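Quarterly update, task 2.4: zinc ion-bound model.
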Amino acid sequence: MIIFVNKKRKYYPNSVKSRRSYTLKEIAEIYNLHIRTVQNWIKQGLKIIDMSHSPYLVLGQEVRDFLKAKKRNRKRSLKPGEFYCTRCHEPRRSIPKHISFNKTNKLLGKNEKQIIVIGVCMVCGNKLFLFSSQKKVAEMKKKGMKLIEKDKILIGNEGCSLKTDKKNVKDSEKNEFKIWAQGSLF
Ligand SMILES: [Zn+2]
């Protein structure tokens, strides 16, 4: 049995040449998509050169701009109190009693230290990480989020040297964290 995993994929805007024009079929082939997905992009605002001509043509530069905007929107979609779950591939909230935070030794600006907020996905139970700042954590507390400070976990600038009680953090989670820290899931 083949199981298809519905993962949010990455589109590389520069896979198309900016000055060339493409048919929808060509765009679908370049990004390995169903043509219907590209048709949906048109509905979402991807511009066609001339609506009266068939087959429709799209300028590469338009595809690039559209995909870049799409990426920005996805980043913006994280609301306060939300985490990006690497298992659900969606913004998720944490089970409130499992939210904690850790100071890292990375400085943000002059006085502020980076903070990592850790939670547990309400939907799938996956561990959630969110890079934040002391200021943002203070704001979260004001809004009524209960955050417990844990000083057991220390994370250095490398972003992957996890020192913690070993039974809590499995290797897979460490790897997940590494991927997350590199930002490749965003
Ligand atoms: Zn999840």
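Highlight for this quarter: The CA atoms of residues 105 and 156 lie 6 Å apart.
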